[in-house]
Amino acid sequence: MDKSDELPKGELTVRIPAMPGDANANGDIFGGWVVAHMDMAAGIRAAERARGRVATVAINTLTFKKPVKIGDTLCVYTSIEKVGRTSITLAIEAWTQRRTSRRESKVTEGIFVMVAIDEDGRPFELPAETLG
Ligand SMILES: CC(C)(COP(=O)(O)OP(=O)(O)OC[C@H]1O[C@@H](n2cnc3c(N)ncnc32)[C@H](O)[C@@H]1OP(=O)(O)O)[C@@H](O)C(=O)NCCC(=O)NCCS
């Protein structure tokens, strides 16, 4: 285990249990299920910052480090790395908690780019960040 595995980075945005219906033929959880929840978490965090709708424009450097098992709780952490004119780049980490232990381990990490979009699906300029 390297040092970066010791503690999750960012805000806990999504927690969800992995169910038998989410498993692949090996009995582990589908990578797509994990990515869907990372995408959801990125969307929640980016929409808060944008104060409006967002869409995923890119997922970069996605790495699956460990399998997720049935019964694990998936915990997704989000950090805003960069805010552009219309886009928000987030580092997303997925960690799992085994049923038998409260200790978490990092299973997947990636960089998600979200774009603020208006009612017509066109990018809009992000508002300035304000407190509260
Ligand atoms: C998101 C979308 C509205 C952007 O429209 P667009 O015409 O490409 O917009 P722009 O070229 O003006 O780019 C908008 C922002 O995204 C960034 N961007 C675009 N493509 C990117 C990529 N591949 N990687 C990283 N950033 C990207 C641009 O740099 C720009 O950021 P900035 O304003 O902060 O500088 C459009 O591409 C779209 O609707 N995509 C589908 C979204 C979707 O359905 N997602 C779910 C996937 S199932």
Automatic annotation (TrEMBL):
Q: Which residues form the HotDog ACOT-type domain?
A: 8-120
The record ties this protein, via PROSITE patterns, to:
HOTDOG_ACOT
Q: Which GO terms describe its molecular function?
A: long-chain fatty acyl-CoA hydrolase activity
- Which keywords has UniProt assigned to this entry? Hydrolase
Any single biological process term in GO: acyl-CoA metabolic process
Please name the InterPro entries in this protein's record: Cytosol_ACT, HOTDOG_ACOT, HotDog_dom_sf, Thioestr_dom
One Pfam entry for this protein is 4HBT
Q: Is Transmembrane helix set as a keyword in this record?
A: no
Q: Name one GO cellular component term.
A: cytosol
Family, per entry: Belongs to the acyl coenzyme A hydrolase family.
Q: What name goes with this protein?
A: (3S)-malyl-CoA thioesterase
* Organism this protein belongs to: Fulvimarina manganoxydans
